[in-house]
Amino acid sequence: MADTPTNFRSFDQQDHLQVIDALRGYAILIVIAVHTLGYVPDLAWPVKRVLTMGFYGVQLFFLASAVTLMMSWHRSADPFGPRSLKFLVRRFFRIAPLYWMAVVFYWFAYQIQAEQFSLQLLLATLFFYNAWSPYLIPTVPGWTPVPGGWSIGVEFCFYFTFPLIATLVTSLRRALVFVALSLGVMLAASHFGQSLYPEISPEERANFLYFWPPNQLVVFALGFLLYHLIKDESTRRRIIASPISADLASLAMLGATLAVALSIGLNKLFDWNQGLPPTHLLMTLCFVPWALVLILKPSGRVINRAITGLGKVSFSAYVLHFAVLKYTSQLLHQLWPLAKTGVYSVAFEAVFLGLALVLIRAIGEASYRLIEQPFIDLGKALLGRLQPPQPAGRPAR
């Protein structure tokens, strides 16, 4: 298989992988879809139940992030210390500037009142430890500096541990061990977490225990497993030789999503009475083989310019889409000439989602070019200054 374009060497050395952008594009698409539901309260139940599965687009983001970071990590031959420093600097300049600017943006866009301000919440958001307490996300009533910021806090917790984990999880077998250990962490967090914060309601506690990092670690572990499955020669040969295509795998993924939506729904934690795993684990287990096929067979209708373009600006789209949905909804509710119940509710949702996607794509592109890319370049420039000069006659690695 040395001449195939999907061999791991060529895949691992690409700076911008179209298929990873496609996965991110689908992730932000379903995240946007689920967040439209708050503005269409009378949406027909079957459609609402299916769109609710967009709640797990965040896990698809986590999965794609783990794979991308592993590829980047293994492209470097630097010692552990310099490699870790470069990794953290790149991640900081990739995420923090836009995220911090969003705190100011949402203060005015959501017209937050001065009495709602909390220095504790602000610091937790700015320094990415906001997912460790229900009062900092918050899952209890309070100011949210950046809507959806819990996932960014969780991801940064993963960044801080990533260099060590990437150094230890160096094979498919070790990736399987990491998945098993992370499942144990999830079980322990789900069980012992029930005694935390007794003053909050059971629903608030369940939301917190879903959001906090110990419950999400298994998703990143499955991302490590996906990376090593891609790298595994036997797995690549079997997938490439099989009749499955990216389009067929996507149909299977859609079918699995419908089955989970209609049979289980949103199960945030292990259901000890019925023996049901949390839905985010089930969905991630579905995402892994789907992503594996798309990565090893990157062709078909599901990998297209529209979805990869959306994926490229997915971080800006994620951060800003909450405000876009709010103001788009206000405008559309004023202009909509039909009813918003029954069949008409589906039409309203379709128009709302389509219009929002167009606006989010345009605004995300502008944000990516004007904010994200300049700070990414600034991070690269800073690393260039920190990089010690190479001795004469020795090529840079």
From TrEMBL:
Residues 20-352 form the Acyltransferase domain. The chain crosses the membrane at residues 23-41, 53-72, 92-110, 117-137, 149-169, 176-197, 209-227, 248-266, 278-296, 303-323, 343-363. GO terms for biological process: polysaccharide biosynthetic process. Pfam families: Acyl_transf_3. GO terms for molecular function: acyltransferase activity, transferring groups other than amino-acyl groups. InterPro entries: Acyl_transf_3_dom, Acyltransferase_3. It comes from the Bacteria. This is Acyltransferase.
